[in-house]
Specification:
Layout lengths: L1 H26 L24 E5 L5 H19 L3 E4 L4 H9 L5 E3 L2 H7 L5 E7 L7 E2 L1 E6 L14 E4 L5 H13 L9 E4 L3 H9 L5 E5 H7 L4 E6 L3 E2 L3 E4 L4 H12 L6 H6 L11 E3 L2 H8 L11
Parallel strand pairs: 1-2, 1-3, 7-8, 7-9
Antiparallel strand pairs: 3-12, 4-12, 4-13, 5-11, 6-9, 6-10
Helix pairs in contact: 2-8
């Protein structure tokens, strides 16, 4: 019994000593303690105001746009130290609205949309893409199926026509210029239907739902050995421009321009760098001027009313 009482007293003494020690070291505010320095904030390549949101018109499906354009954003971020973030849209018009509302500061626009938008929106072009011949031009192409009897623009009379967006250069070139050169108007066709993406136009023609369609040359090239035949080609058109808002800080716009102009597709190491970029931008860039696109307006000079 005495041995048990001694053990109990020993335990009580131990807990009292432990309590006193804890109090003196952690609870007694009369003595100071060494404060642990806060962890430093993680380094950041850019401040919030240096994030550039870049829009893309919906000429292709979202997955194709992301696959082909996100690598360009990654390259710009890496080369400039400025964060470039991709922002998609569901229509050509939405991209312009995003610019107006300040949701994006730059965008990849189509040539026709740029001609329309520059009249009433505070934007300017900075770059245009090179083609596989390292020239800053593209062509629109009228396509049919390989087994179609259609051989020329004149043969489109009474036929069903598939087009991309009403704000795409390709459709406006055919309806507003090329048909007139062959003595036709839109009313001479059986029907006209607009689709959201250039690739959808090709699929509709391949499926036989439409007799002909119009797409950019780079899309037509994907299918010329897969059931598609080209029957007409536009003149050389300045490439679809990269544009910026006019209020973009010059240091940011110049960093963007210089980074993209450094791409030289003739160099093997650069070809490997841009192999995953959208094919339209996989050959590098040239500087773009407003005057480059003035000439395109002449194509539509004969129009009494532009199609919408």
């Amino acid at each position: 019994m005495l041995r048990r009482s001694g053990l109990i007293l020993l335990l009580l003494f131990f807990f009292m000593a432990l309590t006193l020690l804890v109090y003196r070291n952690f609870m007694d505010i009369s003595t100071g303690y060494e404060e642990t320095a806060p962890l430093p904030a993680p380094p950041s390549a850019t401040g919030a105001r240096d994030t550039v949101h870049v829009g893309v018109i919906s000429r292709f499906s979202p997955n194709l746009i992301y696959d082909g354009y996100q690598p360009i954003m990654d390259y710009l971020t890496r080369e400039t130290g400025i964060l470039f973030a991709l922002k998609l849209s569901s229509s050509y018009e939405e991209t312009i609205a995003q610019l107006d509302q300040g949701e994006i500061q730059s965008a990849f626009l189509g040539t026709y949309l740029y001609l329309e938008a520059r009249r009433n929106h505070p934007i300017r072009c900075i770059l245009k893409p090179l083609n596989s011949h390292l020239q800053p031009y593209f062509h629109s192409m009228v396509i049919t199926r390989d087994d179609s009897p259609i051989r020329s623009i004149a043969d489109l009379a009474g036929k069903r026509l598939a087009l991309p967006s009403p704000l795409s250069f390709s459709g406006n070139w055919l309806l507003g210029y090329e048909l007139q050169r062959h003595g036709l108007t839109a009313s001479d066709l059986d029907s006209i239907h607009y689709f959201g993406f250039h690739h959808t136009v090709v699929y509709q023609v391949l499926l036989g739902r439409f007799d002909a369609g119009v797409v950019k040359d780079r899309v037509a090239a994907e299918f010329t050995s897969k059931g598609i035949r080209v029957i007409a080609v536009s003149r050389e058109i300045p490439g679809s421009p990269i544009i910026i808002r006019r209020d973009m800080a010059p240091r940011i716009s110049e960093a963007m321009i210089n980074a993209l102009l450094r791409i030289d597709a003739s160099r093997p190491e650069h070809r490997d760098l841009i192999k995953d970029w959208d094919p339209e931008f996989a050959w590098g860039f040239a500087r773009a001027q407003e005057s480059d696109y003035d000439q395109v307006d002449a194509i539509f000079a004969a129009l009494k009313e532009r199609p919408r």
